[in-house]
Write a structure and sequence with these properties.
A: 67 residues; mainly alpha; 75% helix; B: 670 residues
């Protein structure tokens, strides 16, 4: 109905994913912070996953909007 | 209550972004809200994958997220029955057999279907009971959310406004309600549906990392099974149960069930599980509850409407991994006392502390024995305490007088009873660094909001079409009803907030609403089955059958009780009114557990309604002709020709695949 839902979903997860991945990248090597998440830089990895998901939603939506 | 979570800028940013997007969706959709059909039914234009995910998300209140993790801890893998037995078959049935009547009958709501099929009386009964229940359900959900946030987030509010005192609970309640109000008011059902899809992804992506970390930490599924085997033999060590079970009680879904009520932590027998939960309660909810059916009815065509519940069934089948497994992981961690983790204890209230503090100081001064001290403090606060921990506390206090805060912490740490609702949160606190923490908390917030928005949109539609337009102000312009829809949205939210305050004062609110749902949904399903599949069902039969069924529920509840419960809100109050005590009650009216009582209540109510509706229908005349019932009853409706050219998208095929996968999953975790 008018608005393609993939646009806001894609946008939101891309932003959040970029934010998390960025924060993860900046804090890589901070063992104290990631001690609770079993010494995995979960912000970086999961941020990348979210970003990928967001783009997966956003790009087809933008392409179909153009055509 | 003080909290040990600190949120950083990144967590707040994620929360803020989420709120921004849900409100933004509402505003973006505002211009498409031209008619009441747009506002209440999305103009019947939504694609199947969207309605499918919204269908599932609307049903997923946070109470489910929080509650299922708690049940996973308490009962183990048997909790999956709520999904694999108690949801999938009903969703498949709805998609294949019932959606054609809901969608094809041109009814705009479930009560309106009842009016077209029978008459106004039954529509009135159904709309009133649904409207009341849905507002209460919304309020209870919001109460749980506000309490959770008030306990969790460090933002403290303490102010006076309009002559009343406002604390953080009030702030969270009103702010979250305001966010939901804005986007539902602007964009109607479409807004609710779109945000529900967003919230679905948020919930999955927010909790998946926590489950992954937990599973890794506990050593994987194989090691977890081994750990839970030890727990099952001695659940008393973690205060999960007073009985002992076979080693596979927590990790095997069917074998403990076949052993009878004494062999499984839920205390259920096979028949109650399969018929009571799997058939009556499950079908009664999924097939008649307008909250979920409304999403399917918003689909763009018949094929999409039928596929909606089927699409929803796919993630539903996999949800146990996301919501039930964390509970089992928590038990695994607690039994090994990994990193000092224990299942969260029930919180001691402020007033209980006030009673307990002087007792502790007294016990130290007078050198009372730990056993006597434990008993006294335990009685004062109403929770069971661990004697060793109290002994240690007294010893520390005797060595050097502890500050009040330290004594309180000691008492809280000694509480043995588990707070199952806090299990998922304790895992979030354990594994999430800043960043991921914000994501998980936003996921929790999203689940509450999707529940509230779902309830509000169902409420405003039933009110406007089935109560207002039907009885109060018929034959007005469409714009009039749209305005009414907006007004009642505001009223609905305010009523939900009022119910939230009521729920905050009664711990039993959740139990009451489950009870009422059980009373109403079980007999209602009998009415629908007979109405949709038997043209001879008459309006008199349906109405009085439904009334009798609901009455039978109430009677059953009044005369039965679960072992270990006191007569009252949990049932059995008829006997106490007659002056009888629990042991004097006839034995067949006492059930091994509350769940068993609920499932048998549902079975009884369904059967009474079914038999009476059938009997009364045969005894009374039909008020509608075959022509009038076309499209409303199975035998009088031309067979649907599936528009889908691709055979694998046909609802019948999809339904069979889903049921087959469901059976396979049951076999794997047998």
């Amino acid at each position: 109905m008018g608005l393609d839902i993939r646009l806001p979903i894609g946008m939101m997860f891309s932003l959040i994913g970029a934010l998390l991945a960025g924060s993860g990248f900046l804090t890589r090597g901070d063992d104290a912070m990631y001690h609770c998440s079993l010494n995995i830089n979960i912000n970086l990895w999961w941020g990348i996953v979210l970003l990928a998901f967001g783009l997966l939603m956003l790009i087809p939506a933008l392409l179909s909007k153009k055509s | 209550m003080p909290t040990n979570i600190t949120l950083t800028w990144i967590d707040y940013t994620i929360l803020f972004l989420y709120c921004l997007f849900v409100i933004g969706i509402g505003f973006a959709l505002k211009r498409y809200m031209k008619t009441s059909a747009d506002f209440f039914m999305s103009g019947r234009s939504i694609p199947a994958w969207v309605t499918g995910l919204a269908f599932l998300s609307a049903n997923l209140g946070a109470l489910e997220l929080v509650g299922m993790a708690g049940s996973g801890a308490k009962y183990g893998i048997m909790t999956c029955h709520f999904y694999w037995v108690g949801a999938i078959p009903a969703m498949v049935f709805l998609g294949i057999f019932m959606m054609p009547f809901y969608y094809g009958s041109k009814a705009r709501s479930v009560p309106e279907y009842l009016k077209l099929r029978f008459d106004e009386r039954i529509r009135c009964f159904n709309s009133l009971s649904f409207a009341v229940m849905t507002v209460f359900a919304s309020g209870i959900s919001m109460n749980a959310l506000a309490k959770l946030l008030a306990n969790l987030l460090p933002w403290q509010v303490d102010m006076s406004l309009l002559g009343m005192h406002w604390g953080s609970y009030d702030a969270y309640l009103w702010i979250c309600s305001a966010v939901v109000l804005v986007y539902v008011l602007k964009g109607g059902l479409t807004s609710a549906i779109y945000t529900e899809v967003l919230q679905f992804f948020m919930i999955v992506l927010g909790f998946a990392p926590v489950v992954y970390l937990g599973l890794k930490d506990v050593g994987g599924w194989g090691t977890l099974k081994g750990t839970l085997a030890k727990v099952a033999v001695d659940p008393r060590a973690l205060d999960l149960s007073t009985k002992s079970f076979a080693p596979d009680a927590w990790t095997s879904a069917w074998k403990p069930l076949l052993g009878g009520p004494a062999a499984n932590p839920m205390g259920i027998d096979l028949f109650a599980m399969v018929f009571g939960l799997g058939f009556v309660l499950s079908f009664g909810y999924w097939c008649t509850n307008f909250l979920v059916v409304q999403r399917a009815m918003a689909a763009r065509n018949m094929g999409a409407a039928r596929r909606t519940p089927l699409i929803a069934a796919v993630p539903k089948m996999l949800f146990p991994i996301l919501v039930i497994l964390p509970g089992m992981i928590a038990v695994g961690l607690a039994s090994k006392n990994q990193d000092g983790y224990r299942l969260p204890p029930r919180a001691v209230s402020v007033s209980a502390y006030d009673k307990a503090l002087p007792l502790v100081k007294d016990a130290t001064a007078k050198e009372i024995s730990p056993a006597a001290a434990t008993k006294a403090i335990s009685e004062a606060i109403g929770l069971r305490l661990n004697e060793e921990k109290i002994a240690a506390l007294l010893k520390d206090n005797a060595a050097k007088p502890l500050a009040d805060g330290a004594i309180k912490a000691g008492i809280q740490g000694a509480v043995m009873e588990n707070d199952y609702d806090n299990v998922i949160l304790s895992l979030v606190k354990k594994y999430c660094p800043p960043g991921l923490l914000g994501l998980a908390l936003t996921a929790l917030l999203a689940s509450f909001m999707s529940g509230m928005a779902g309830n509000v949109t169902a409420f405003n539609t039933v009110w406007t079409y089935d109560l207002y337009q039907a009885y109060i102000a018929p034959n007005k312009s469409d714009a009039h009803y749209m305005t009414m829809g907006r007004i009642i949205t505001v009223v609905g939210i305010l009523l939900s907030i009022a119910c939230a305050y009521v729920a905050s004062n009664y711990n039993n609110a959740m139990d009451i609403i489950q009870l009422v749902f059980g009373f109403v949904n079980a007999p209602l399903f009998a009415t629908f089955v007979l109405g949709m599949f038997w043209s001879r069902t008459t309006s008199h039969g349906a109405f009085f059958g439904l009334l009798a069924g609901t009455g039978a529920s109430a009677l059953f509840h009044a005369t039965t009780i679960a072992a270990g419960n006191a007569p009252g809100i949990k049932g059995g109050y008829l006997w106490s009114l007659l002056g009888m005590k629990l042991p004097d009650m006839p034995a067949f009216l006492i059930f091994p557990s509350e769940m068993a009582q609920n499932f048998w209540l549902a079975t009884f109510a369904f059967t009474v309604c079914f038999v009476l509706t059938l009997g009364l229908s045969l005894a009374t005349r039909r008020t509608k002709t075959d022509e009038e019932l076309k499209g409303l009853v199975y035998s009088l409706t031309p067979k649907l020709v599936d528009e889908e050219k691709s055979w694998f998208l046909r609802p019948a095929f999809l339904g069979c695949v889903l049921l087959a996968v469901c059976v396979v999953m049951n076999i794997i975790f047998w």
